[in-house]
Amino acid sequence: MPKIAQIEYFRVPPRWLFVKITDDAGNIGWGEASLEGHTQAVEGCLDAYIERYTGMDADDIEHIWQTTWRIGFYRGGPVFMSALSGIDIALWDLKARKLGVPIYQLIGGKVRDKIKVYAWIGGDRPSDITAQAEARKAQGFTAVKMNGTEDLGWLDSPSALDDCVERLKAVKAVGMDAGIDFHGRVHKPMAKQLAKALEPHRPLFIEEPLLSEHPDAIKALSQLTSTPIALGERLHSRWDIRPFLESGAVDILQPDISHCGGISEMRRIAAMAEAYDVAMAPHCPLGPIALAANVQVAAATPNFVIQEMSLGIHYNAGSQDLTSYSHNPEVWKVTGGYIDLMKGPGLGIEIDEEQVRRLSKGAKAWVSPGFIGPGGEVREW
Question: From CA 349, how far away is CA 22, in angstroms rounded?
């Protein structure tokens, strides 16, 4: 059995953390453990995992996953699960490359040949929506997502919500579908109003209408609107997601493959969601490795509906983008709202290791932006 000989990680611009695993036969696999704004914490966790897992059988992906989850006593949460995600994705890539097949062939085979995708417009303070929507349409997209609002107070003027409705109408006028991300920055007194105001204009979904720390309020909000409720990027395992499925509060799950335990856990979450007739639209404003991992799972997932991709997202401005760090960036070409399923081995992308190593030197950790209200108070970002 091949043993894990080396685990390395690379902090790279704009805000990503890549993981490389090499076995004692020279086989390699790449993963992504990016956790926006908390890079140093994940790196510290990876240091501990490197010591623990070097020398273990690289083929025993599930055993390594369970060892990480159960032996540490404390488990779950964004830091532990992001570190585990990077290792899990890399192990799947390594195993599939060694066998010369795409990862989706190891998890049941494909149920589709193309993957529906959407892209971001607008930024953290949404603006220039019509021009940005038209640019995305020219790139081949048929759907976009945008932040619903700038920062809001716990109770703000109802007029602060008017711009969101107008932006949705503008995107629809271009002929695009649009998901509206409340981003957890809209508290309950405002969220109820915004959901109702948007409903007649038929958004694709409303995302994180409230933070997932308020499950009862999300359930109540879901009963006030016919618009699909989407959430999941801040839920880090099937156990976190379970109460939202059981309450019927969510229509579309958006777990992040770099935060929820990798390919192994994403598959289990998708199977749970299917039993509740809930769709999968994974969160991924991250790098090419994370997106490729999502595509591999989407290929074999019946209840997958649409995939977020970070091409040209505002966080990448002036830095590396989704097409960086690989020798075959053409796999991200969008046609008619879809990308073709990659056919190469493993993740289906070929990492440019020279570029990764070069740009990781001196790379700074990304710091999450924030909002301060007019009274000097911290607001949700």
Answer: 17
Domain residue spans of the chain: 4-101, 105-347
Tell me the C-alpha to C-alpha distance, in Å, between residue 115 and each of 31, 89, 130, 305.
20, 19, 25, 8
- Nearest residue to 41 via CA among 3, 83, 89, 99: 83
Fold of the domain built from segment(s) 4-101:
Enolase-like; domain 1 (3.30.390)
Q: Please tell me whether residue 181 adopts helix, strand or coil conformation.
A: strand
- Are residues 371 and 184 in contact, defined by beta-carbon separation less than 8 angstroms? no
Cβ atoms of 205 and 229 within 8 Å: the answer is yes
Q: What are the tokens at 76?
A: 């779950």
Contact 264, 89 (CB under 8 A): no
Instruction: Note if the pTM is more than 0.90.
Output: yes
Residues 83-97 have pLDDT tens digits of 999 999 999 999 999
User: For the packed helices 238-247 and 215-222, what is the interaxial angle rounded to 10 degrees?
Assistant: 40
pLDDT for the residue numbered 29: 98
- The alpha helices in the chain, defined as continuous H runs, are 39-53, 61-71, 78-99, 129-139, 162-173, 188-198, 215-222, 238-247, 262-275, 288-299, 353-360
- The reported pLDDT for the residue numbered 12 is 98
Q: For the residues 27-52, what does the mean pLDDT come to?
A: 97
The fold of the 105-347 domain, in CATH, is TIM Barrel (3.20.20)
Q: Do domains 4-101 and 105-347 have the same CATH topology?
A: no
| Helix, strand, coil percentages for the chain (3-state, nearest 5) | 40, 20, 45
pLDDT of residue 123: 85
Give the β-pairing of 143-147 and 177-181: parallel
- Residue 111: pLDDT band (50, 70, 90) is very high
Q: Are 174 and 121 in contact (CB under 8 A)?
A: no
Q: Please, are residues 182 and 208 in contact by the beta-carbon 8 Å criterion?
A: yes
- Please answer whether residues 64 and 4 qualify as being in contact, where contact means their C-beta atoms are separated by less than 8 angstroms: no
What amino acid positions are annotated as catalytic residues? 183, 283
User: 262-275 and 238-247 are packed helices; what angle lies between their axes, rounded to 10 degrees?
Assistant: 10
Q: Which two tokens stand for residue 183?
A: 């981003």
Instruction: Scan for tokens 């992001």, then name that residue.
Output: 82
Mean pLDDT of 120-139: 92
